[in-house]
Amino acid sequence: MKSRLFTPGPTPVPEDVLLRLAAPLIHHRHPEFRALLERVQMNLRTVFQTREPVLTLTASGTGAMEACVVNLLSAGDTVITVNGGKFGKRWGEIASRYGVRVVECTIPWGDVVQPSQMEEVLRLHPGAKAVYLTQSETSTGAATDIRIMSEVIHTHSDALVCVDGISSIGAHELRFDAWGIDACITGSQKGLMIPPGLAFVALSAKARKAMEQASLPRFYFDLGVALAAAKKNDTPWTPAISLVAALDAALLHMIEEGMEEIWKRHRRLALGLRAGIEAMGLRLFSQKPSFSVTPVWIPESVSWQTLQSAFRSENGITVAGGQGEFAGRIFRIAHLGYYDDLDIIAVVAGLERALARCGFSVELGRGVSAAQRVLA
Ligand SMILES: *Cc1c(COP(=O)(O)O)cnc(C)c1O
Prior knowledge:
Blueprint: E1 4-6, H1 15-21, H2 31-48, E2 54-58, H3 61-70, E3 78-83, H4 86-97, E4 101-106, H5 115-124, E5 130-134, E6 136-137, E7 142-143, H6 146-156, E8 160-164, E9 183-187, E10 198-203, H7 205-213, H8 223-231, H9 241-257, H10 259-279, E11 293-297, H11 304-315, E12 317-321, E13 330-334, H12 341-357, H13 366-375
Parallel strand pairs: 1-12, 3-4, 3-5, 5-8, 8-9
Antiparallel strand pairs: 2-10, 6-7, 9-10, 11-13, 12-13
């Protein structure tokens, strides 16, 4: 049976990108690798919509999150985080582990922080050094309007705007320079369509300046060292060479399609999927769903275990379960990266079959037809 991955990381990898992973290794201090990294660094700037440097770290996405804490802050600093899901919460967990004072905006899972709420928190904590946001909160599928939040933060404070774009970059519009973002990260196994193992950090001039004052301890994730190396198309430590080669191929696809087209495609896929799901009589979880992952309430009469195994054993489809308090109550279908219209039709058809197998009454083809109409 064909296996079909619909999870928000890892995501499917295009065939020619897989082949790049199988190529013989080149040495990372050799001119051939420098040329490769130079092209990758240039194309990453397009992905982040920036003229600023975008660093490539060998780590999962969380490594880039930690880098954005230890390089920008000192012990005793105050920062603002938004806890509306597992990943927003993680910003706070990392910062507090390093002795940073964390002011957490707590919102119900599935919601997004409102500009007025952020304004209020900034007023109460005028000395906050940074605000840590999550563009697409993968655990709930909720999408925060980063353009507006960044404007609010810059208008009311001097804080750095740091954005976790791990499950949104390559799916959602994100303009690092135009929106005044100071630090933005992503990971390789999400919208960038390669396996896990690389993480990326873009830094504004203001963030680079803040790095000079920041005194939290750092070694592997010292971005000052990484920036100096990146200028010479180099990395401080041995990079995941094969992943950088694969990334080169994946970025060529992205550049060829164009960022605006990529954002439009993800929007179309998300809307098509939502129409299919609602036509089957299921309910969407998030009030403000992102275009990269769609969480859905599991019907009362169905267990997650049965649904998951019906998806997998009969259709080869892997979707993600709920996290935290929503484990067993929602499931999440990702459409982040290498997906097209027919993938959406396939997952909607798979969902109809899986639900029918679970004894949930669904007319086969009803969801597919609704999705078809939106996608067409
Ligand atoms: C996947 C994800 C992370 C964590 O990345 P890892 O690669 O698992 O370390 C962080 N934030 C968001 C929004 C994510 O989707």
